[in-house]
Write a structure and sequence with these properties.
7 strands, alpha/beta, 9 helices, about 240 residues, 7-stranded parallel beta sheet
Length: about 240
């Protein structure tokens, strides 16, 4: 894959840390990586955004941001309230293809979930994925309620003819409860796609050198890692 879209089942599910982990694993495998954030919301002009966080954690990544809106809202709403032009799917496609010309992997991290509005026409990250013909990596929560939001997002992808590359759990706790442990087996069925990783809770607070060293152990070989879903699931049931 050259371009991989990273979306979530909602906000605050760990998309940025998962994006950083995928970038770090790809870099460790000798790939060149770029990260594109089409619309950064809720961050002032002088503050570091999600791209800066990925670069801090993953290291030698090319970062790009197309637009920034100060209020923590959906991109369409945030752009309108700020009196700024929104970012549409065509701009995302153009920027991703330009980055793909000089990188082995381009990670496009969305804002919020798959169908959050980008502009007044109702365009979404799914439209950008369609223009790019790119698979979508779904970042999901670990606990109760995640099966419904995962299934809804997977259905939205399927009805648009888009490919779900797999699911990564954005924050896996040290002491998972029963629902979380059961979800390891149920998430792939809800998504109709494989479970491709589980990033430990608090991973983003690790020193960058440590993060880069262990990131591949959180991700499956498809994402340049060494993580095994069957083994991890069995270990969590003990």
């Amino acid at each position: 894959m050259t371009v991989l879209i990273v979306t979530g089942t909602g906000t605050e599910v760990g998309k940025t840390v998962v994006t950083a982990a995928v970038a770090a694993a790809a870099l460790a495998a000798g790939r060149s990586v770029a990260v594109l954030k089409p619309a950064q919301t809720g961050v002032a002009a002088h503050e570091p955004g999600d791209v800066a966080e990925v670069l801090r954690l993953a290291g030698g990544v090319t970062g790009a941001e197309l637009a920034r809106f100060p209020e923590p809202l959906a991109p369409d709403t945030a752009a309108r309230r700020a009196g700024l032009a929104p970012v549409g799917p065509a701009e995302i496609e153009r920027a991703a293809r330009e980055l793909a010309d000089s990188h082995d992997l381009v990670l496009v991290e969305g804002a919020g979930g798959l169908l959050v509005r980008l502009d007044e026409a109702g365009a979404t990250l799914a439209d950008a994925a369609a223009l790019l013909g790119a698979p979508v990596l779904l970042v999901a929560q670990a606990g109760l309620g995640t099966l419904n939001t995962t299934a809804l997002t997977a259905e939205a992808l399927s009805t648009r003819g888009l490919t779900c590359a797999g699911v990564v759990i954005g924050s896996w706790p040290a002491a998972p409860d029963l629902a979380m442990r059961c979800n390891l087996a149920d998430l792939p069925r809800a998504a109709g796609a494989p479970l491709l990783g589980a990033v430990p809770e608090g991973a983003g607070t690790l020193p960058p050198e440590d993060f880069r060293g262990v990131a591949p152990t959180w991700l499956a070989p498809t994402l340049h890692g060494t993580w095994d879903a069957a083994r991890f699931t069995a270990e969590q049931q003990d």
